Amino acid sequence: MSVQETGRFAPSPSGYMHMGNLLSMLLAWLDCRAHDGRLLFRMEDLDPGRSKPRYRDALAEDLRWLGLDWDEGWPDPAYAQSNRGAFYQEAFAALERQALVYPCWCSRADRLAAASAPHADEESFDAGCPCARLSRKERAQRERSGRRPAWKLRMPDRLVTVEDAHYGLFSQNLAREAGDCILRRSDGVFAYQLAVSVDDMLMGVTRVVRGRDLLHSAPRQHWLIETLGGTPPVYCHGPLLSADDGKLSKRLGNRSTQLLRQEYRPEALIGKLAFLCGLIDREEALSARELLPAFDWSRVSRSDIPCP
Ligand code: GLU
Question: For the whole model, what pTM was predicted?
Answer without folding.
Answer: 0.93
